[in-house]
Amino acid sequence: MDPTARFSEVVSGPEAELALDEVGMLIAAHAHEGLDVAAQLARFDDLAAQVGEPTLDGLRRLLFRDLGFTGNDIDYYDPRNSYLDAVLDRRTGIPISLAVVMLEVGRRVGVPLSGVSMPGHFLIRDKVDPDVFVDPFARGAVLDRRGAQLRFHGVHGPDATFDDAFLTPVGKRTIVDRQLANLETIANARGETFTLLWVLRLRALLPDADRSVRRRLAATLGAAGRPDEAADLFERVAVDAVDVGDGPAARDAALAARAMRARLN
Question: What CA–CA distance (Å, rounded) separates 89 from 98?
């Protein structure tokens, strides 16, 4: 099945059944044409088979001590850090991609974990002891709540306001959206319009995707020389804005659609 169609199918189903490893590989398949998603998923099975003790410590020991998974603090914005196949190949990534590896191997061996989408950093939280956190970027370092707070201040500075809500577990779709948001930031910084287009298309397929995602997709389509598609999408954004009573957004989108249509004449 086409990776975009399969992505849409998976993320539109029940969130509890959403497999982060499959979604991650489907994202990677957009960057690595011909990627064998099934073969890549089997690599997670192989990792799970190597976990000697089906506990949090056993999982950490395999991934971060024995196999050496670690954060890429040399080239953090290398897009390979966000593509799950490359993360498995290189055993390096960013916090969220390493967290997905840990979550999915843990799921296979029965280690109950959840993701914590803290601003600026992503952590793993133990479901058995919710005061225990793991930083997969720091080679699986174990943190308590104070340690997690220090990670936050390490990113945002000592005067930044910390909220305990930052440590609340998030749903799987939120994790997927944050993965794609990272890739959107990278594609923008590198000026990679083709990548930006498919990343925004995938973000727009997520249930409850913010209207601004579709507006950015429409603008990118226009910039890529596809004003007809851009106009169609701007018009749908305008209709949605009307439906929620957002008059200014509706007017802006309608004007953008007319500007795109004018380019076709």
Answer: 12
